[in-house]
From TrEMBL:
Residues 11-105 form the HTH hxlR-type domain. The keyword Transcription applies. The lineage of its organism: Bacteria, Bacillati, Bacillota, Bacilli, Bacillales. This is Transcriptional regulator. The keyword DNA-binding applies. Keywords: DNA-binding, Transcription, Transcription regulation. One of its GO terms (molecular function) is DNA binding.
Length: 105
């Protein structure tokens, strides 16, 4: 197997960060690792996030196929968010970041 050069690794890290998005994405992912959530549940669980920031974050994650948005035909409409297989694959990395943060932050 060919060894990756530094340029390739940096490019891959940059791609991953672009897919995940901003700081709120990590907190949204943390909540969704626990299971499917509604918008209001995410809003309540993530301290300090505005509805606009949450909407933007969810749209970004959905666009990058990390999150799937399911709409149920109720009145008013029920919308739930859950992780795709691609989103679930981030769990190990996020868990390691959490461990690192508790040790070094």
């Amino acid at each position: 197997m060919e060894a990756l050069n530094t340029e390739t690794i940096e490019c891959s890290i940059e791609k991953a960060l672009n897919i995940i998005g901003g700081k709120w994405s990590f907190l949204v992912l943390k909540e969704l690792f626990e299971g499917t959530r509604r918008f209001s549940e995410l809003k309540r669980a993530i301290n300090g996030i505005s509805p606009k920031a949450l909407t933007s974050t969810l749209r970004h994650l959905e666009k990058n196929t990390i999150v799937i948005r399911t709409i149920y035909p109720t009145v008013p409409a029920t919308v739930e968010y859950s992780l795709t297989e691609k989103g679930q694959a981030l769990h190990k990395m996020i868990k390691e970041m959490k461990i690192w943060g508790s040790k070094w932050a």
